[in-house]
Recover the amino acids of this structure.
C-alpha cells in the first residue's frame, strides 16, 4: 500500500520489516511490534494488534517469499493502525470452522471478528530466477 491509497492522502508513519522465517522469529517479531506501537503512541492496540499480527505472521512463516523472508509493514495514521503481512501461498482465503478439536485454522476468524477492517490483496513474488510465484498480502486495521 502506498501513502496515496490512504484516506485523505495522508502520509503514514510506516515501519517495514523483512523477517527470516527461522525458529525464534515469531516471538521477536511480536516484541518489536509492541515496541513500535509504543513508539507511535498506539498502545491502546497492543493486545488486539499483537494477537492479530501474530496470527497472520505465524501463517506467513510457513509460506515465506522465495528469498526466505516474510515481509511485514506497519502503518500509523491519524485515527488507526494498519498491519500488512505477505505470504507466498497461492491458497485462497477461506474462513471456515475447522472443528472444536482442530489445533489450527482460527486465525482468520479472529482477524474477522476483532479487526475494524481487514482484507487480502493477491500479488506475485519474483523467485530471483525470472519466475513469478503467486502469493498475497493480508492486512488489518484497528481504529482509535
Amino acid at each position: 500500500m502506498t501513502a496515496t491509497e490512504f484516506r485523505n492522502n495522508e502520509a503514514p508513519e510506516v515501519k517495514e520489516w523483512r523477517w527470516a522465517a527461522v525458529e525464534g522469529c515469531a516471538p521477536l517479531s511480536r516484541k518489536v511490534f509492541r515496541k513500535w506501537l509504543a513508539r507511535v503512541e498506539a498502545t491502546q492496540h497492543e493486545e488486539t494488534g499483537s494477537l492479530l499480527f501474530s496470527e497472520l505472521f505465524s501463517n506467513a512463516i510457513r509460506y515465506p517469499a522465495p528469498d526466505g523472508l516474510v515481509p511485514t509493514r506497519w502503518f500509523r495514521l491519524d485515527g488507526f493502525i494498519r498491519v500488512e503481512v505477505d505470504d507466498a501461498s497461492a491458497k485462497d482465503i477461506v474462513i471456515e470452522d475447522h472443528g472444536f478439536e482442530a489445533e489450527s485454522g482460527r486465525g482468520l476468524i479472529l482477524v474477522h471478528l476483532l479487526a475494524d477492517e481487514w482484507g487480502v490483496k493477491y500479488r506475485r513474488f519474483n523467485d530471483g530466477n525470472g519466475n513469478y510465484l503467486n502469493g498475497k498480502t493480508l492486512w488489518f486495521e484497528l481504529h482509535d
Q: What stands out?
A: The CA atoms of residues 34 and 46 lie 6 Å apart.
